[in-house]
Design brief:
By secondary structure, the chain is α/β, with parallel strands linked by helices. The chain has helices spanning about 1-15, 15-35, 35-45, 50-55, 55-60, 60-75, 90, 95-110, 150-155, 155-170, 175-185, 205-215, 225-230, 240-250, 270-285, 305-310, 345-355, and strands at about 130, 135, 140, 155, 175, 195-200, 220-225, 250-255, 295, 315-320, 325, 335-340. Strands 2, 5, 6, 7, 8, 9, 10 and 12 form an eight-stranded parallel β-sheet that branches. Strands 1-11 form a two-stranded antiparallel sheet. Strands 3-4 form a two-stranded parallel ribbon. Strand 6, helix 12 (about 205-215) and strand 7 form a beta-alpha-beta unit. Bound molecules: zinc ion. Zinc ion binds near residues 200, 201, 256, 260 and 297.
Length: about 350
C-alpha cells in the first residue's frame, strides 16, 4: 500500500513521461487489434512453412526410395526371415518399384565386388541380345528301367561330348548368365559367338560327366541345384562340396527351388515362398558370394514368383520358353533351347541351326 502510494505520488510528479509511455503502449495494442491487414499478414506468414512442407513428401516417390534402400542390403545375401510365414505385406510390391529394383540389382550384379557406384537413377536403356541358352538335365547312362521322360532328359556322355566338340569347332564361347545380364544392363561387350550351357536339377552326373567334359573344352556351365535332395545327401544328387569345387573352377551355380515338387505358378503364395526362400537359404549358407540365379521347376511361374525373386535380389532366372532372344526388360524370364536326349547328332544340328538362324 505504502509503495503503491509512493509510486503514484512519484508518477504524478513525472506525469508527462508517463503519458507518452501509455500512449505508445496503447498505440501498439491498437495496431495489432485494430489493423486487420497486419494481422492477416502475420497469419499468412506462419502457415507458409507447413504449406510448403506438405506437398514435399508426396512429391518424392516414397516407394522407390524404400525399395532401393531395402534392396541394397539384400544383394549381400543375408535375406529373409527364417520363419515359414513370410509376411505377405513385405511381398506385395508395386510393379514400378519391382522393375526399378530389378534394374539396379542387375546393373550391380556382375561386378564381383559390390561397387558403390550404383547411384544412377536414370532408366536403363532396353537392350536385347541373341544368346542361345541350352537346357540340359542328365548327361550319362540311362538306367535299365528308364521311361520316356527319363530318356528325353538324358543325353549320353558320348553325344554330349560330340555336341561340345561341335560348339568348340564353330568357335562358340561359353559365358555365364551373369555376363549376359551385365551385357543387357550395361552394354558391356560379349564375345563374338556367345552361348550359355545350363544343367537343371543338380544330378550327380553334373559333377561326374559334365564338369570334366566342360573343362576339357575350356567351357563353363551353369548348374541349377534343387536344395533339399542335395542337402539330405540323396543318392543320385550332387553334394555341396562338389558344387563348391565346381563353383571355384569357373562354373556358375543357381537355385532350382527346395524340392522341385511344385509347378510354382500353379500354387498359392505361401507354398511358393517356402520353396523359393528355403531353397535360397541353403544356397546362401553353402556358397560364399553366391549370386542369386533361378530356374523355375518345370518352367512354371507367375507374378508372385517374380515378385519373391525380386525381393530376394535375384538378378536372373531361366524359363523353359523356347528362344534365343534375351531382353534387359525381362531378366527373370530368359529363354532357353531344350536339348532332348533322344536326338541324334543330326537332329541336334537341325534344331540348333533352326533356333540360331531364325530371325
Ligand atoms: Zn528341373
Amino acid at each position: 500500500m505504502k509503495i503503491q502510494k509512493r509510486g503514484q505520488q512519484r508518477g504524478a510528479l513525472r506525469s508527462p513521461f508517463l503519458l507518452t509511455a501509455v500512449a505508445v503502449v496503447l498505440s501498439l495494442v491498437g495496431l495489432t487489434q485494430l489493423n486487420p491487414p497486419l494481422a492477416q499478414l502475420l497469419s499468412f506468414h506462419t502457415p507458409t512453412p507447413t504449406a510448403t512442407a506438405t506437398p514435399a513428401p508426396t512429391d518424392t516417390p516414397a516407394p522407390t526410395n524404400t525399395k532401393t534402400a531395402t534392396h541394397t542390403p539384400t544383394r549381400t545375401l543375408t535375406p529373409l526371415p527364417t520363419t515359414t510365414q513370410t509376411p505377405t505385406a513385405t511381398m506385395v510390391i508395386n510393379r514400378k518399384a519391382t522393375r526399378q529394383a530389378r534394374a539396379t540389382q542387375t546393373a550391380a550384379a556382375p561386378t564381383a565386388t559390390p561397387t558403390p557406384t550404383a547411384t544412377q537413377t536414370a532408366p536403363p536403356i532396353p537392350r536385347a541380345a541373341r544368346v542361345p541358352i541350352l537346357m540340359y538335365h542328365h548327361v550319362g547312362e540311362l538306367p535299365p528301367d528308364a521311361d520316356a521322360l527319363r530318356k528325353s532328359l538324358t543325353v549320353s556322355a558320348e553325344r554330349f561330348n560330340e555336341q561340345m566338340r561341335f560348339l568348340s569347332a564353330q568357335d562358340y564361347t561359353t559365358i555365364h548368365i551373369a555376363e549376359l545380364i551385365n551385357h543387357l544392363q550395361t552394354g558391356a561387350p560379349l564375345p563374338e559367338k556367345p552361348i550359355i550351357l545350363t544343367f537343371d536339377d543338380g544330378y550327380d552326373d553334373a559333377y561326374v560327366n559334365v564338369f570334366p567334359t566342360l573343362k576339357d573344352f575350356g567351357f563353363k556351365g551353369t548348374f541349377f541345384i534343387i536344395g533339399a535332395p542335395t542337402d539330405y545327401g540323396s543318392p543320385g544328387y550332387i553334394r555341396w562340396e562338389q558344387i563348391l569345387e565346381m563353383s571355384e573352377n569357373g562354373m556358375e551355380i543357381g537355385a532350382h527351388s527346395l524340392t522341385h515338387r511344385y509347378n510354382l505358378g500353379q500354387f498359392r503364395a505361401s507354398l511358393q515362398d517356402n520353396e523359393i526362400i528355403k531353397g535360397n537359404q541353403l544356397m546362401v549358407d553353402h556358397l560364399p558370394n553366391w549370386m542369386p540365379l533361378f530356374s523355375y521347376p518345370s518352367g512354371s511361374y507367375n507374378q508372385h514368383t517374380l515378385d519373391v525373386l525380386t525381393q530376394l535380389g535375384y538378378v536372373a532366372a531361366v524359363t523353359t520358353k523356347q528362344g534365343i532372344t534375351q531382353s534387359s526388360e525381362t531378366p527373370l524370364e530368359l529363354r532357353r533351347i531344350r536339348i532332348r536326349g533322344e536326338w541324334s547328332m543330326n537332329q541336334f544340328l537341325y534344331w540348333f541351326n533352326y533356333w540360331t538362324t531364325r530371325p
